[in-house]
Amino acid sequence: MKISFPVVKSIFLIIATEIISSQCHRSNSLSGNTDSVDFNLRIRPILSDRCFKCHGPDAKQRKANLRLDTRERVYAALKDNPSQHAIVPGKPDASFVYLRISSKDTSEVMPPVRSNLKLKAEEIAVIKKWIYQGAKYKPHWAFIPPQKKPLPKVDDAKWPRSEIDYFVLAALENANLQPNQEADRERLLKRVSLDLTGLPPSLSLQNEFIKNDAEDAYEKTVDHLLAQPQFGEKMAVHWMDVARYADSHGYQDDGLRTMWPWRDWVIHAFNENYPYDKFITWQLAGDLLANPTKEQLLATGFNRNHKITQEGGVIDEEYRIEYVTDRTNTFGKAFLALTFECAKCHDHKYDPIKQKDYYSTFAFFNQVPEKGLVGDITLASLADPPKIKISTDEVNKILSFINKKDTAAVEVMVMQDKPTKRSTHVLKRGVYDAPGDVVKIGLPVAILAFDSLKYGNNRLGLANWLVDKKNPLTARVFVNRIWQEFFGRGLVKTSGDFGMQGEMPSHPQLLDWLAVDFMENGWNIKRLVKQIVMSSTYRQSSVVSQEKLKTDPENILLSRSPRLRMTAENIRDLALASSGLLVKEIGGPSVKPYQPKGIWESSTSGRGVLARYVQDHDEKLYRRGLYSFIKRTAPPPGLLVFDASNRDQCEVKRMRTNTPLQSLVLMNDPMILESARVFAERLLEEKSSVNEKIEKAFRSIVCRQPKKEEFDILISYFNDEIKLFSQSKKKANQFINAGEYPQKKTQDVIIVAALMQVIHTIYNMEESITKT
User: How confident is the model over 61-71, as pLDDT tens digits?
Assistant: First the structure.
């Protein structure tokens, strides 16, 4: 429990900790040792939270020459008092650490009173018990290679459909909880369709699935959705955040760049189900493969998505170092879920990452023949070197996944190493012009020893080290983030921090089982996704009882399906898809949809082609949210309101907030209003009753049949609006004047306006934008 958390969240975490602790006790009881205190599960979190800042890896912050994060140092005699030892296995009363934490003397007790940190009585007791049992140390759990443990035994053998379910059910049974029943077919179809394609299920798919009573109906639907090209788009949304993709360079001038062909490649890679090891190897080091193809070169654009300055007067080397720093930090967070950036200026205060380790990793990315500044906002090209040109002929012949319509060549920034090695120095305090000792390429040995003869002495060697099956982090980190995509929370809640300050896994054996299974089956992403959505755990209803809400408010034990608001991009997609406006074209340049006036103009230097916002028209207005133009200094406001990333840096998890602005967007966004108007016009062209039209609208948006009371309210509202607009046809005309999509000239304006109001109301329902 972190002391800086709000009180309410702290209470939730205490409850969660107790639940997880009871799970751990059950695991111990299965092994026949009900009293065993596990260091990683029970002791290290206490030490990390309360002790490691002064007695951890950071030598400059270390007090009293005492280090508690390694077995060797904690058992050794104290440097200041050789007759004493920090920990004496089996003897709490002879252990200096225990004597200090249990002291009643405020001048002696640890942590010091002035630190505002304090150990609870039960925490002191468990440390004493651990010492008494032999004080067995373990490396941090995330640095121990995952192992596939046998599936736990469960009482309800009928519920599990997959290995996943055994781990989840064992924890539930231990907490005296039962899993929910399976969600009804309508909600389950909506859930899996949104999760796999980011789009609501069509009415034809709804009808087909509801009527299909075959045992394999759900699995066939899952396979159908996985095969859709929209699967790659849905998966790409998350990867754009990880890769900090944007359509502008950032900083004050924030000029235009062309990296969208790389985005097209990401969509293609997910749709073609590239194995994860190949997917990340190409992005990190595709240019260093033997005889690299143009596609492999394009994939390395991942490393060039960082911000780039175009402002005159900057110091070239300072910004070149910034770019390498960004790549290093992104590598640490994206693939290892470690806070590498904390070791830029000094040894990491909590994790075993020395400053030297940081710059040894930095050295892999420090070989690019780039400059901190290339030209300026008026002269610079759309892609700084190193770069590649992609011609129309290449698109037609070898890069068919790139959606390129014009004939001009597109330039994309990629990776390339200098022919001669650039020396890399430790930078004192992280300052670009304060070089210290020269370092060679390398990585933190606590993760996995790096052998340049085995892996290679360049970025390809880095990628080979990363996908080595002995690497304890790579598979765990990715599996955890995929889990997070479906459940809103990873098995490790802190999906960007698997270090000692991160949270413990809620289901450690499940995480390890999935990680090993993922590697054993060829790093197959679609297989992993199917495993999750086919499980009984995923298919549960989201209904929550008071008992479950009280016992497990954050749903850590997964006794129900979570209720999650759709992502910012998918809220836009829902409106476009349900109304029939969505243009399902895959890939291509980013588009500029409706946006309030003046946002770009108020946040720019006033120079360059992006100084003013020039809205797109026609089909470009109706592309998926994935393709919305991302200008870093002024990201799309409609997306930001719903917690989209501004793409300044690598992000592996979005916040979920609830604010009044979100309601205002749904009520007033021109795109939502236009979708409602076009949907109403199209329904009016159909030979059906008003009741049938409203039912169709409800099913298209909410993805289920309306209840009688819901339907009656909507019909009553429609009739009220007919009366209201009948009093003023001018008001009806003004209301339906939404968006640029051509209006139907032969429609009854009053009926269109009333039906549009009903549809707009449905779009504003909480359930419409929620995955239940």
Answer: 888 888 888 88
